[in-house]
Amino acid sequence: MIVSALLTSVGINTALCVLFFTFYSILRKQPSNYKVYIPRLLAQGASLTTPFNLKKLIPSPDWIAKAWSLSEEDLFSLSGLDALVFMRLITFSLKIFTFAGVIGIFVLLPVNCWGNHLEEVDIVDFAANSLDVFTISNVNSGSNWLWVHFIAVYFVSGFTCLQLHHEYKYIASKRISYFYSSKPQPHQFTILVHSIPSSSSCSISDSVESFFRELYPSTYLSHVVIRRTNKIQTLLSKAKNLYKRIGQLRSDPTRKYKNVDLCGLFGSKDDRIDHYGKKLEDIEQNVRLKQSEASLIGESCSMFKEARAAFVFFKSRYGAASAFHLQPSSNPTQWITEPAPQPHDVYWPFFSESFMRQWISKLVVIVVYILFTILFLIPVLIVQGLTNLEQLEILFPFLTSILSVKFVTQIITGYLPSLILQLSLKMAPPVMWFLSTIQGYISHSDIEMSASKKVLWFTIWNVFFATVFSGSVFYQLYVILDLREITWKLAVSVPAQASFFITYVATTGWTSVSSELFQIIPFICSLIKRPFTRPEEEFEAPSLAYHRDVPRILFFGLLGITYFFLAPLILPFLLVYLCLAYIIYRNQFINVYAPKYETAGRFWPIVHDSMIFSLVLMQMIAAGSFALKKISPASTWMFPLPVLTLLFNYYCRKRFLPIFTAYSGESLIKKDMEDQKDNASMAEFYNKLLTAYKDPALFPIQHASRDDSLASPLLS
Amino acid sequence: MIVSALLTSVGINTALCVLFFTFYSILRKQPSNYKVYIPRLLAQGASLTTPFNLKKLIPSPDWIAKAWSLSEEDLFSLSGLDALVFMRLITFSLKIFTFAGVIGIFVLLPVNCWGNHLEEVDIVDFAANSLDVFTISNVNSGSNWLWVHFIAVYFVSGFTCLQLHHEYKYIASKRISYFYSSKPQPHQFTILVHSIPSSSSCSISDSVESFFRELYPSTYLSHVVIRRTNKIQTLLSKAKNLYKRIGQLRSDPTRKYKNVDLCGLFGSKDDRIDHYGKKLEDIEQNVRLKQSEASLIGESCSMFKEARAAFVFFKSRYGAASAFHLQPSSNPTQWITEPAPQPHDVYWPFFSESFMRQWISKLVVIVVYILFTILFLIPVLIVQGLTNLEQLEILFPFLTSILSVKFVTQIITGYLPSLILQLSLKMAPPVMWFLSTIQGYISHSDIEMSASKKVLWFTIWNVFFATVFSGSVFYQLYVILDLREITWKLAVSVPAQASFFITYVATTGWTSVSSELFQIIPFICSLIKRPFTRPEEEFEAPSLAYHRDVPRILFFGLLGITYFFLAPLILPFLLVYLCLAYIIYRNQFINVYAPKYETAGRFWPIVHDSMIFSLVLMQMIAAGSFALKKISPASTWMFPLPVLTLLFNYYCRKRFLPIFTAYSGESLIKKDMEDQKDNASMAEFYNKLLTAYKDPALFPIQHASRDDSLASPLLS
How is chain A split into domains, by residue range? Predict the structure, then answer.
């Protein structure tokens, strides 16, 4: 990889960025695109129509200023603590990379280029320099200049740990103060109990009632047994599809449906609307029937069997917490308790699963995850093949003439490989999310967090270890399992990949982030969908997909920390990337994302742990590199650093982690005491609590303006 | 190693056993030896004098019958649940090895000797056979007879898992029923809180009072702040030594003390008694003064600073448990709670430690433990050298003539090595116990359990891995760290050590167990001590040292499981060993050991986990062995077995482990309800509770009959 190839990539990329920016700045002002660009504001009831204005056709950067000036308090009131913590992740990374960047660019880069170097930088034909000239590989073995790198590693490790501690402390205190300032919320008074033992003499509901009333007579309030509603769910999704189809038919008066449609139905448009309308009525009738059946509590012969799970409500937060913390039954596989998620956070399909399958599905998920992660190497290896021109020429001799064009070469080596890798990696989040849904989690937030971890390790393994230790799958495993030489092997192969990752960050990092910033894909999708949607159709604003966004930022953080002393050139590109991400996420929180639930920053420990992982990895590579470069004292003195880092992590786990898993007795009891001062509003709250956890499948069917459209005469 | 050497060892050993048995059967009947042989009965107040009887001089085996016929209920009422669980460990091992023994001796041994064998068994000169003839090494590579071993491994794994499940279930149920049948006990109503934040405005005691009274107004009862009493403890131990010395002087009227004693004091015996008596009085006066100072609660200027720890008492078990389970403060490093140990179980010296040192000492202990475990290899390697006659002859040429005597050869190769190993291993339990005491545990039982684990892994590493992978320390680590080839290397080296371990079990196993059974060492010690002890001196019966006895049984269990298919010859020796152990421990429970505290079998999970470890180890070795012997399908089909075993272990952890860490809410509340029926006795219990946790250093000094002996005129 030479400098000119990098510059080509960066150029393409910057051009794309500017293009996207211009499009975005114009398109976002058109009311027809509001659904794409400001769904959040629309969902909140913002008006669709604004008077025509010439300004609408001129790109303007005012939204950047708006996003930039958003204060932390505004962000918190707008999108909650989760969004604030997510933004802290980006600013945290910015801080670290600014510090590391200053050291890297002003200290390490000159040392690499002009210290005790192997190769001279070609100032005259700058673009023809290999990127290796700027990395640690350019420093002579045994050179004392390497001690500069040694000191830099210690400095950056120390600074990162300090910042990690600061952030953990800050977010923990935010979490506590969020709890203190919160109003009574249903999930604070509720636990979920499952694996309730079934008995022939009484129903699940009776068992729950007698068990908890006996154990906690003073704090137990009530309970709701969960019912298996998968049949209703199937019917409801059928009804939704039919309703959509009718909508499509009605909204487009010009189109003729002469050909056979999917149901094999001939006839005019109106006949079809009529037909679908009747079908919809039938299904809705059926749903209502089943809903009323399901709500007959205590009827064990009902076709909607009670699941062996229930939400149990308590009169106080402390009551719920102590019922959760003390294992209720002497048999630990019965009456298993979990803190209840927020009502909107409950993942209802889970309760349709048989609880006996939970264990097996968990095992299956683990096996599938491991297989998927390992087999995913194949596209990665193909990508690596593309970076190697000679191999391409051997495989496809007819390409020789094209490959000899300089620009094509630069695109192929500089841009394409990382783009393909990036696109194939896009598969990971939905797959991991799907795997997590069948793993038995009861809430969306748990699924998101589990999927986050899966995506993160998937990415680390595939992008980092797999591209670093190239070879067959089994050879990879074989190398990893040899713990003796892992440091050595990392030190040999990680720096060799430096130029690849510099390009990766500088190109696909930007492309990906800018295409999302400017909502390119949603805009194209909306163009395709537009004929089929009706303007008044109800829609929800999307919420931030933590399993996609958190691992992405974390992965770039990992790259930056690992490479900062090997190839400091990566840092300015990372900083630009992070700045773009900073603006994006602040903007798409204002306009696009609306939080559906609040975990109060419960995902921060994942961030902390992965940062520690990347620090230790960097330190191991440093130790190996110094050994390779034959200054063994530096290698030896590097070893206390990972030990200290892990000790620091151990301390943080003791000091902060418990705050992220449960609230303390002190805070629960203080909040309870506050509540007791206002008896009237608590009574009202208890009433609401009893209906807070209702399966959405049991809600009455409501389609926006259904009655108006379907009940009205079809031909007026 | 040839059969005759083994037979020599077994012979020596059996002779020793019989000798010890005869001695024991006579000596135990002599009243002068009661302190050695029946301390427990003595401590319970059994009479020392019995009429003279001729039977006293004839060895009799009646105690064996008594020990054998002891029922489980008797054992439980005699020594509590811990002893019962300990005996279950032995009977469990007996069951497993009987099953494995039948398969091993009647199926595997014939296959090894006469299947598709490498070497013929020499029936004529049986004693000249190598032990290898009886092991798996005698089976030809590629022989289909190895499938018999394969099936045996599956069978024994299945049987062991079934038994493990059965035992876990049984002991868990015993634990629950023990709790249900127990009377109110102080530790059930108490928690220990430490790391109490200090404030300048109020004392520790006031902080505790206000904190818990505010949080738990309905269940909080009272508290006791722990004081640093290390100075009193030092004085008390000085007083104890002086008292002992006076006792020695008074008990031996014949001895003349002409020479200078340790205090540099000349003079007659009476002068010295006088001098020591005065010194003792001074110290005791000092102790009383300091005790009264220390008990002035709330005086922060007192020289006995309050430690930042307290026992907090609650009105109900549930109150205590929920205060423990819910982290009390929002800062997880303050107000750290632990369930209180039983009053007799408290390890008081711990509270003299500064709490800030706790973390550091823990780290130091881990480092020291690792170093000790690794450096201990040196004696082990020397021991290995002894088994190699040729090396000895090279090192010590003058021994050549002695070494050529057949009997000496047999002793050196068969008996000495394992004896030396056994003796050096005896160092481990006290060292590990010491390490555990400074690790910050608050109870003797925690220390015992932590030391148990340390000793177990120490033994496994040193006896098993170290003797198996002979070589330098670093080479050992180097081999272990290469996870790829560990199965292969185990399979190569473990079977090669088979004959060593057969001898090890058949000789030192018996010697050690029989010498303890017959209390040889305590008897010799008592002979040496006797002139210095007074018959009426108070003494305590020893309690079972779990950190010594549990790992020992477990280690032989490990050997048996690992070697059962490699060298089935080990099993009959193990069975004899276990039978001896069975009788011993049933007898050292009737007569010797008296339990000081009760953990209700809390150490069983250690047993379970180490059995699982040995099963997986055995299965890995089996997979490697079959690969070595070139029947790769057997090797491949061995791999599901460790996976299944680990899944089984995972299930057991979910199903049973929580029962061993805490009692369930259900059981706590039910017991509380029972108590509430009897108000009067609960009021009495609460009164007792307040004084249950008193530092022994603050008790008034009491030496048995001190007043009689010291207050009486010295010359009458």
Answer: 3-47+57-182+359-668, 186-352+692-711
